[in-house]
Amino acid sequence: MNPLTAYIEGIGLLGPGFNDWPSSVAILTEEQAYQTSPTMLPLPLSLPAAERRRSSIVVKLILATGLEAVTAAGLNAAHLPSVFSASSSDGYNCHEICQMLASDDRQISPTRFHNSVHNAAAGYWSIATGAMTASSVLCAFDASFGAGLLEALTQVIVDNNRCLLLACDTPYPEPLNSARTIPDSFGVALVLAPQRSARALSKISVSLTDTAAESLDNAALEALRLAIPAARSLPLLRRVAQRQAAHVVLDYLDCVRLAIDITPC
User: Fold this and answer.
1) What domain range is 177 assigned to?
2) Is residue 101 in a domain?
3) Cβ 66 vs Cβ 10: under 8 Å
4) For the range 175-178, what are the long-range contacts, defined as Cβ-Cβ under 8 Å and sequence gap of 24 or more?
5) Residues 70, 137: Cα–Cα separation, whole Å
6) In a domain, 249, yes or no
7) Mean pLDDT of 101-111
8) Is the N or the C terminus of the chain less surrounded, counting Cβ atoms within 10 Å?
9) Number of domain units in the chain
10) pLDDT tens digits along 225-256
């Protein structure tokens, strides 16, 4: 495949030990030691009160990272097409529905049901930002970050327009956690643009390869990368934070990975 090329204009990041992109740069460049801590999800204040009460962990994570990336890029979220990518569903909501179905009272609340669909986060994003632009929602299990990146890059190139990628994962309670263990919430958002602008952080060119994926030297960060599918983005984020030309290979499918050439702007 020919390389897919775009410019990263804004980044949002939230996960264990990562509170936002600016403070994470020092960790990813090893100027500050990485210390893991539970992901702190802010209140989704951009939502109306009624929707705020109903919002799930996924929605809070998407809004936090997406709005951070869009603000950093100096853009209006309402005008951006978006790609949402997650390896599985809303874990806590899925758990509650399964509990209800296993009980004598099998009636599921409408709110619980509408939050169970895979594109619920896209709906809440539209409510919070006023976005009426196209949104794509996909799932590729552990390959979800790579699949989302390829989809967003394709849209940037074909439509010659910016696109917002929002990738996230959240944990399941037990007993589902034993079957699908995701230790904490992790989300990353990237604003991708077809041309270089004054806000551009890096140029990326992505192609397919059978080369092994890059691991991280820091044992704690490597454990995080392997534990949460959305954290497969960490080697890319580290290279962007370092602001040096680099080549990185990310996990994707079992026999195919993503080779990314990174040029700082």
Assistant:
1) 8-199
2) yes
3) no
4) 176/91, 176/94, 176/95, 176/98, 177/91
5) 18
6) no
7) 83
8) N
9) 1
10) 999 999 999 999 999 999 999 999 999 999 99
| 73 occurs within a structural domain | yes
The answer to whether residue 174 is domain-embedded is yes
10 Å Cβ neighbour count for 98?
14
Phi and psi at 131, nearest 5°, equal: -70, 130
CATH code at position 38: 3.40.47.10
pTM of the complete model: 0.96
